[in-house]
Amino acid sequence: MREKWTSRSAFILAAIGSAVGLGNAWRFPGLAAKYGGGAFLFVYLIAMLVVGIPLLMMEISVARYTRQGAPGSMRALNKKTEGIGWLAVSNGIGISIYYAAVFAWVILMFVLSYKFFGMSGDTEAASNLWATTIKTTGTTTGFTTISWPVVGCLIAAWALCYLCIRNGTTTVGKVVKYTVSLPVICLLIMAIRGVMMPGAMAGLAKLFIPDWRALADSNLWVDAIGQVFYSLSTSMAIMFAYGSFLDKESNIVIDTIIISFSDMFISILAGVVMFTTMAGVGMLGDMSASGIATAFIIYPQAIVQISGSPVFNMIFAFIFYFCLITLAIDSLFSIIEGISTAVSDKFKLSKKKTTLIICLVEGIISLIYVTGAGLAVLDIVDYFINSYTLIITGILEMVAAGWFFKTFKILDELNRNTGKFKMPKWWFIPSIKVVSPIVLIGLFVWNLVNLFKGGGIYGAADGYALWANIVFGWGIIVLILCSGLIIKLIVKIKSAKGFEEDSRTWEDFKES
C-alpha cells in the first residue's frame, strides 16, 4: 500500500521545507540588493503567479492522481514522456550531491562559531575562517588537498539526511514540525536585532522601496524568474514524490498557494535580516548575489561588528548558522525523497533500502567537494544544472502536460476538492501551454548566449579550465539528458530476467 502523509499540515510543512532552502536565506537578499529592492520583489511576484504556481500545481496534482513519482507521473500523460521524469530525477541527483557539500560547510561554520568570540572587529580573520578551514584553492587543481573537518561534517550531513527520511512520510512528518518552524524563529530573532541596529531603516528602505528604473534591466527579469523557478523545488522530482503521498481528498489549490507564499515570506524575512544587519555595520553596499560569498565570507565580517560584546557576537553566529542548518536539511532530504520514490516505484524495490543505498552512493561521490578543488567543481556543476537541465526539464514538463495531454483533465484533478476558490481555466491552461514554456525558453536561450559570449565557441563558464567545463559541465548535461535511455537499457536487461515494467497511463489509474 502507498504511504500517505499523516496529516495535511505534514505535507504543507514538508513542501515548504523543500521550497525554502539556502537560496532563500542568501541568494534572494543578494538579488534584491542588486536589482532595486522592491522592483525585484515586484517581478518575483509576477514570475511566481505566472510560472511558479501553475507548474507546482501541475506536478502535485498529476502525482496525486497517479500516486507515482516523477517518471510514472510523466508516463501517465503520454507513454513517450516518461523520460522527462527521469530528467527531473537526474537533476535531483546532481543537485543533492553538491548540496550535501554546502550543507557540510554550514555545519562546519556552526561548529566553528565559537571562534567569533575572539574576532570582535577583526573582519579579515572572520572572512578567512571558512576558506582557510575548507582549504579551497579556488581552482580545479587542488584535488589532492583534503579538508578532514569537512569530511566529518559531510558524513554528519548524509547521516542526518537518512535519519530524517528513513521511514518515509512518517519520519518526514515528525521532522518538518521543527525544521520548518525553527528557521522562522531564528530569522525573527535576527530580524528584531537587525531592526534595532543604527542605520537599519536605510537597509529596509533599500529592500522595500522600488527603484523602478531597474525594470529596464533585462537581467532583473531573468534572475527573478530563475529564483522563482529554482526556489519552489520544481523540475527535480520532489513535488511529484510529495504529491504522490497525498490523500485524494486534499485541496491542492489552497495548499499550493500556502506553500508558494510561505516561501516568498521567508525569503523576504531573510532579506530583512540581511539588509538591516549589513546596514547596521556599514556594509550595505557589500551584499553579493553569490550565496556562498554572502554566507561564508561577507556575513561573518558583519557578525564580528554587530556589537562590542564578543559573547553576543558568538551567540549571534551560532543562531545564524543553526538557522542555515535547518534550512539545508529539509531541502537535502526532500531531494533524496524524490529520487528514492522514483527508483523504488520503477523497480519495485524497498523504499527504505533504496534510500540508504542512494545516500551511501551519493555520499561517496560528494567526497570530491571536500578537496581543495571542491568549490570550483561545485560552481561549474551548479551553473550548468541550474542554467540548463533544470530549465529544459521545466519546459518539457509543460509541453507534455500542455500539448501531449488534455490539459483540462489536470485542471479537473487540481480543482477536485476545492470550495469557492478554484484554479481558474484562464490562469492555469494558458500558463502551462503557452506563457511558461515561452518564458522558460527565453531564459534558457539567454543563459546559453551569455555562456558562449563569455567562453567562446566552447561555452566555458567563469574562466575555469576548458577540461573542467567539459567534464563537470557538459559531461553532467549529457548524463542527465541520457538518463531516460540509461533507465530503458536497465529495464530491458531486467525484463530478460522476468521483470515486468509498469506501463500504465492516465486512463489506467483508478480511483482509490
SSE diagram, text form:
Elements: H1 8-19, H2 22-34, H3 38-66, H4 70-77, H5 82-111, H6 123-134, H7 148-165, H8 169-179, H9 181-195, H10 200-208, H11 218-231, H12 238-244, H13 252-280, H14 291-303, H15 310-347, H16 351-365, H17 374-403, H18 407-414, H19 425-455, H20 466-481, H21 483-495
Helix pairs in contact: 1-8, 1-12, 1-13, 1-15, 2-11, 2-13, 2-14, 3-4, 3-11, 3-12, 3-13, 3-18, 3-19, 4-5, 5-7, 5-15, 5-17, 5-20, 5-21, 6-14, 7-15, 7-16, 9-13, 9-15, 10-13, 12-15, 15-16, 17-19, 17-20
Total discrete domains: 1
How many helices does DSSP assign? 21
Radius of gyration: 22 Å
Low-confidence runs: none
CATH class: Mainly Alpha
Reported for the largest beta sheet, the result is: none
Mind telling me which CATH architecture this is?
Answer: Orthogonal Bundle
> What structural class should be given to the helix and strand makeup?
mainly alpha
Report how far the terminal alpha carbons are from each other.
Answer: 11 Å
Encode the helix/strand succession as letters.
Answer: HHHHHHHHHHHHHHHHHHHHH
Q: In percent terms, what proportion of residues is strand?
A: under 5%
